Structures are given as structure tokens and as C-alpha cells.
Amino acid sequence: MTEHFDIVLRQGHLLDGDGHPVDLGIRDGVITAIAPRLEATAEHDLDIQGCLISPPFVESHIHLDSALTAGEPRWNQSGTLFEGIQIWGERKRSLTLDSVKQRALEALKLQASHGVQYVRTHADVSEPSLTALKALLDVRETVQDWMTVQVIAFPQDGIYSNVQNEALLEEALKLGADGVGGIPHYELTREDGVRSVHRIFALAQQYDRLIDIHCDEIDDPQSRFLEVVAACALRQAIGHRVTASHTTAFASYDNAYAVKLMGLLRRSRINFIANPLINLTLQGRADSYPKRRGITRVKELWQQGLNVSLGHDCIQDPWYSLGNGNLLDVAHMAIHACHMTGQAEILACYDMVTRNGLQTLGLLPETAQRGSLLCQGQPANLLVLEAPTAFDVIKNRAVVMVSIYGGRLLLRRKPRALYWSLPSPETHGTSDENDKSLGNLSDP
Ligand SMILES: [Zn+2]
């Protein structure tokens, strides 16, 4: 019997499939059939010819309010986190609702073009008008047909560095932020840092929100707020709702302390986000040689079974003038910076920008906790990438050929092609990648 679908993808390789190509049928926003061959008609019938079918990319840590402002009002010449915070302090005085919205939308489109379908953004809530937060809450609604956005209220300047900041953070939660953030290592004193973590947990409980703290984003081995965050999460048994972002100081702790800390982290079950592009460029700035990498213990956290995801953090802003929203660049950098070059480790880094990110955001469906995101009954949020396996996708930084969100076709792209002019017959008209199994994406 011939079935009718909204979309059928023909002869693709599932990320966690058995290596044989399959047809995948989508109806009413859900993956409704997967089989070697589907007898089917569809609104969009796409022959994807051996390309990879993958869950979408998840951007678990980005600052959309500062995105695309690099060089305004001046460039970060020292390259340090603290000069970045100073420049942002000057730039944010001239923010308007419209300008933040426009830049955030532009950045989200850039991310969507690279297959990102979920974004957790921080919104700076250290200035009295809360312009950045209001704009990003607005954007969250504007894009809901093509992107899921979470907004974290982030007190960039600290909760206790200024008398008004604590109230601004709470006001942000009243206005509808999805989560509460913090920056304990940037508070004026160690005591203020600890107090800020306790305040964050109290607010999260009072307003029933997620927690995502910029935690120990510094090379200082004495910056030890991660243990405070993990202990609070453990005592309240809410580790799955808590994220420690950056934790770069973890790379500078001596091993005796790190081993003890790892035991607490295992018990707390909190989530971790590393931002390799930014950690590598902002940290180690006070070192001569040997120079630290300034990236948290990604490999060891992963080996302990803790949930680690990877974020871009910045796209063309006072902290990082580069970046285009492509999470394959982030995964690729993590593989190098974290010594994750084993086959299983490379695939783990792919998970860190897909399903682990969903888990960090608290959006991994219950039914996919132990299984695949690409099986019958799962939401039809997925990508087709121009390579047959996740390994090849990372190796080639494969482009997104198709993005399907909520069962609707979001974008399609023509394959890249390279035509040699050299007089060798076997070099004529081949793809620019070295995999010959991929043909043209056709839509009969
Ligand atoms: Zn950040």
C-alpha cells in the first residue's frame, strides 16, 4: 500500500544506523516510518543518496546580545576577557531594542544555515533598562517557527558589584527568562562569589527556572566555585537542571583536588559546557611558557559519564572577532584542544554539539534518554549533511544539505562541486570532498 508523507528522505545513512541506507518518512511533525524502501508519495520526496541523517546541532552557549558588534566602539587589542567586558560595558550603553533584535535575528539565521535548531543564549541583565533581555525574549517568540531559543538572565558585571544588580536579575526572571545565570569568579570577593551562587539557587527555586552559571572562567587555580555549584545542586537534587559553563580553572587545579572534585561532580550530575574557541583564545593570556590551554577537563568529564556539551560562546563580538555559528568548527577545535582524537572520542565530540546539547537545555525527550533521536515517534527535527558518517562530517566540515524543523522543510542547499581544469580524466567533475558515494540531491 502506498502511504503519503509530508517529506520522504530516500537512501540516507542514519547517524546511529547499521550502515545500510534507509528511507525516512515524516508526517505531522513526527518521524513516522523508517525502512530500507518506503512505498510512498510525499510533498517533498528527496533522494539524499547516501548522505548522513543527523539530529540537529544545538548551540548550548552563546551571547546573542553582543553578537556581530566586533570593533564597536573599539577592537579588543589585548585579547583578554577583562578588556572584552570593558568594551562591552561601553557598547551596551547604546543598545536599543531594535538593534539587539536585528543583530540577534541575523546571528540566528547564520546559525540556522549551519543546521542549528536549538540555542541557549545569555542576556546581560546588568544595565537598568534590561534592553538586551527584553529584545531576546521578543526574538525567542519571533523565531519559534524555525528555532527553539532559551534565554538565561546573565549578570555580566556580577550580582553584588553594584547595588541594583540583584534586583535586575530577579526582574529578568519575572519578565520571563528561562534560566538564571551568574559569574561568581568576577564578584568582588570570594565571599560575594559564594553568596551569589546561593542567591542563584534560591531564585531558581522560587521562580522554577533552570540554572546556567559562568563558573571559574579564569586560569586561577584558586577559583573554586564549581564545588559550590555542585554542592548546591546535590543538596537540592536538581543537577539535571544545573549547568556549569566554562569551568576553565578546572584545567589549572592540581590533580589531588581535581580527583576529589570529580567525585562530587559525579554525585551532583550537573551539566557542563566548554567553549573551546573562546577558552583557547581568552585563557592563558597571563602565562609566558609553558602556556596553558585554558579549557576544562572535557575528556575526563566525558569519561566519568557526565553530560558535556560544546558552545560557540561568541560570534564577532568584543571577546572574539571571528566565528560564523558553525558548531562543526567548535567540535573540530574541541577534538584538538582536548586530545579527543580517538575514534570514539571524535564521535563523542559530535554528540557534544547535538544530543548532549539537548540534554543540557533540558529538552532531550524522555523517550530518547536511552535511545536514538532518529526513530519512529520522535519529533522530526533533523538534518541531512553532505557526508555519509559523523566522522566524515567533522573531517570535511560537511555542509547542511537539508534542515527539517517540526516536520517542515526549513532549508535546502545545492551540493558543493569542484571542476578541475587539469587534463586528467579522473579529476573532471568530481565533488570537492573525497567521498564518491555522494551524488546530487534530487527532488523529482
Ligand atoms: Zn559566555
Radius of gyration: 22 Å
Question: Helix content range of the residues, please?
Answer: 25-40%
**What's the CATH architecture of the largest domain?**
Alpha-Beta Barrel
Gross geometry: globular
Low-confidence stretches: 432-444
CATH topology of the largest domain: TIM Barrel
SS-derived structural category: alpha/beta
Number of helices: 13
| Name of the CATH superfamily of the largest domain | Metal-dependent hydrolases
Top-tier CATH class of the largest domain: Alpha Beta
Helix and strand pattern: EEEEEEHHEHEHEHEHEHEHHEHHHEHEE
Determine the oligomeric state from the structure.
single chain
- DSSP strand content: 15-25%
Topology, number of strands:
16
Bound molecules: zinc ion
Question: What profile does the largest beta sheet have?
Answer: 8 strands, mixed
Distinctive features:
13 helices, 444 residues, 8-stranded parallel beta sheet, 32% helix, disordered C terminus, alpha/beta, binds zinc ion, 8-stranded mixed beta sheet, 16 strands
What can you tell me about this protein's structure?
There is one protein chain. By secondary structure, this protein is of the alpha/beta class. It folds into two domains: 3-55 and 373-427, Urease, subunit C, domain 1, CATH 2.30.40.10; 57-368, TIM Barrel, CATH 3.20.20.140. 50% of the residues are buried. The chain is built from 13 helices and 16 strands. Strand 10 (210-215), helix 6 and strand 11 form a beta-alpha-beta unit. The two termini are 21 Å apart. Strands 1, 2, 3, 4, 5, 14, 15 and 16 form an eight-stranded mixed sheet that branches. The protein has an eight-stranded parallel sheet with strand order 6-7-8-9-10-11-12-13. Helix 6 (226-236) runs parallel beside helix 7. The site of zinc ion (ZN) has 6 residues, from loops.
